[in-house]
C-alpha cells in the first residue's frame, strides 16, 4: 500500500507541475483559456466518438439500460455507487475549505451506509441532508490555481484534461480503495450510461453547432472550472462597451 501511495503521489506531483507549466503567460491572448496542443489528434478522435462509437454503441446501450432496467433497480444502483464517492468528496471539500459540504458528505455516507442498506436507499436526503455534487482531487488542486493542462479527447471515453489524472488519489480512500479493476469498470460504466442518457435533451444544440468539437471543448473546460470553484472575472459593462466601440472604429 505504501509503494502504491508513493507512486500515486509522485504522479500527482508530476501532473500538478505539468498543469502549472501549461498556464498561459499572456492573459491578453484570445485563446488563453484553451490548451489544446493535440487538436489535430483530438478532432480525429472526436470524429470516431461522435460519428461512430456514440450513435452505434454508447447511445443505444445507454438508452436501453434506462428503458429496460426497472426504475427501482436503477435508483438503488445509482444511490449505492454515489455513496461510494462520499468519503472522497468529503476530503476534497475539506481541502477546498468547504466545511459545511464536507460535513454533509460525511453524514450522508454513514447514514446511507447503515440505515440505507449500504447506500441503496437515500435515507440522508429524506432526513434533509443536502446532496452535493461529487468533488474529485483534481477539483481541489484546480481550486488552488493548478491549470487543467492539455485537453485530450480520448477514444471511446470522451474529453478529459491532464489534471484529471490526479483523481487516482481518490481511489486510495475507502471504500473506493476496496474496489478491484472490474468493480471500478462496472461503476464507471453504469454511471456513464446514466450520464449519457441524461444528455439526450442537449443533442440538438450540439448538432446545430457550426463546430461541435469546439463547443464541447468550451463547455467541458468551463465545467471543470465550475467544479473547481474557480472565480471568474467580474463582468464590467462599461469596459465591454468601450471595447466594442474600439473594435468598431478599428475594423
TrEMBL record:
Classification via InterPro entries: MlaA (IPR007428)
Keyword tags: Lipoprotein, Signal
Domain of life from the UniProt record: Bacteria
Skewed-composition ranges (Acidic residues): 236-251
Pfam families attached to this UniProt entry: MlaA
Signal peptide: 1-23
GO cellular component terms given for this protein: membrane
Keyword Lipoprotein (UniProt): yes
Span list, region Disordered: 230-251
GO biological process per UniProt: intermembrane phospholipid transfer
Record family assignment: Belongs to the MlaA family.
Protein name: VacJ family lipoprotein
Amino acid at each position: 500500500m505504501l509503494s502504491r501511495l508513493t507512486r500515486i503521489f509522485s504522479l500527482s506531483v508530476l501532473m500538478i507541475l505539468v498543469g502549472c507549466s501549461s498556464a498561459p503567460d499572456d492573459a491578453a491572448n484570445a485563446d488563453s483559456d484553451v490548451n489544446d496542443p493535440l487538436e489535430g489528434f483530438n478532432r480525429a478522435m472526436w470524429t470516431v466518438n461522435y460519428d461512430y462509437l456514440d450513435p452505434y454503441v454508447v447511445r443505444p446501450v445507454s438508452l436501453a439500460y434506462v428503458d429496460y432496467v426497472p426504475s427501482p433497480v436503477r435508483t438503488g444502483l445509482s444511490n449505492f455507487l454515489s455513496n461510494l464517492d462520499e468519503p472522497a468528496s468529503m476530503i476534497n471539500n475539506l481541502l477546498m475549505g468547504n466545511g459545511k459540504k464536507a460535513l454533509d458528505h460525511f453524514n450522508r455516507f454513514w447514514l446511507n451506509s447503515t440505515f440505507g442498506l449500504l447506500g441503496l436507499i437515500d435515507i440522508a436526503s429524506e432526513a434533509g441532508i443536502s446532496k452535493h455534487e461529487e468533488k474529485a482531487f483534481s477539483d481541489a488542486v484546480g481550486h488552488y490555481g493548478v491549470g487543467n493542462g492539455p485537453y485530450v479527447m480520448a477514444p471511446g471515453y470522451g474529453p478529459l484534461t491532464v489534471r484529471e489524472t490526479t483523481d487516482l488519489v481518490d481511489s486510495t480512500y475507502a471504500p473506493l480503495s476496496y474496489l478491484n479493476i472490474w468493480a471500478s469498470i462496472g461503476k464507471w460504466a453504469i454511471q456513464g450510461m446514466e450520464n449519457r442518457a441524461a444528455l439526450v435533451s442537449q443533442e440538438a444544440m450540439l448538432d446545430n453547432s457550426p463546430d461541435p468539437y469546439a463547443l464541447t471543448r468550451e463547455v467541458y473546460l468551463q465545467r471543470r472550472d465550475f467544479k473547481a470553484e474557480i472565480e471568474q472575472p467580474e463582468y464590467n459593462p462599461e469596459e465591454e462597451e468601450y471595447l466594442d466601440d474600439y473594435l468598431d472604429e478599428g475594423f
